[in-house]
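Q: I'm writing up a methods section and want to include an example of the input and output format. Could you take the sequence below and give the corresponding predicted structure tokens, formatted cleanly so I can copy it straight into the document?
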Amino acid sequence: MQQTTFLFISGVEITFILFITVMIFGANKIPEIARGLAKGMRTLKNATNDMKQEITKSAEQHGIDTNLTKDISSEVSKIKDSLEDFTGAIKRKL
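A: Here is the clean output for your methods example:
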């Protein structure tokens, strides 16, 4: 029997962590904590996007070709898609 893991944590461990969280903070505080974490993650994502835009703008002002990264990303996507097609065929045969 194979056990599913998420970030190297099994379902039993996640359940235990949730149980301890409920015991420490109480059930009524968990939605508030989740909203705070979501807001923090959104702020971090926005800050990351802002930094990325500033770096791209600065690179363009200094004449650095930013299309290279786009080309690499598109090639990686093509390879990923072809690998998914290949592994999908193998999975169907198994």
